[in-house]
Amino acid sequence: MITTSDIRNGICIEHNNDTYAVVEFLHVKPGKGNAFVRTKLKSLTTGKVVDNTFPAGHKIKDVRVERRKHQYLYNDDMGYHFMDNESYEQTSIEEKMLDNPLLLKEGADVDILFHGEKNIPLTLELPQYIVLEVTYTEPGVKGDTATNTLKPATVETGAEVRVPLFINQGDFVKIDTKSASYVERVKK
Fold first, then answer.
1. Rounded mean pLDDT of the chain?
2. Measured in Å, how far apart are the chain's first and last C-alpha atoms?
3. d(C-alpha 104, C-alpha 82), whole Å
4. 57, 69: one domain
5. Where are the beta strands (DSSP E) in 1-118?
6. Is the pTM of this model over 0.70?
7. Which range of residues forms the domain containing residue 51?
8. Predicted confidence band at 141 (pLDDT cuts at 50, 70, 90)?
């Protein structure tokens, strides 16, 4: 059991018969009344994000999670399939548990969080940045680099990302996996 003073981003708790990860939190001490903690919780089973307020000192059941490295293999009707890098066991995860499944490239290493006691996968964490090749985009025109205008581009995994006008087909781009947005062009 933890109290509201132990709440941090990323910890997992059990609340209303579900497992949640703390996305955001804010300790509030108003001028009048008791202190409280305002949180944004993401359900690890459904993916929903809910707001919840805990009174100061409230006891919360924390969940022990294990982070294991896996390699992305493929996806089909059953979900997305990953292989444990140490035991070579395969794990299947439903698409609704993934934040940006179109950014997964075959062979990519990811972290899967497992419930410590039940040994079931809770969520998948992509690396913060990934490098993908642009497979299709409208060609850039000389002189278009002066503005911050973006155009759509399809990358090798099939995802569509907004990129600057100077990016061409065959270029490699660094993509932020949280927002699925362009970061920079990469030389390969």
1. 87
2. 49
3. 11
4. no
5. 2-3, 12-15, 18-28, 36-43, 49-55, 59-62, 65-76, 79-84, 90-93, 109-115
6. yes
7. 2-62
8. low
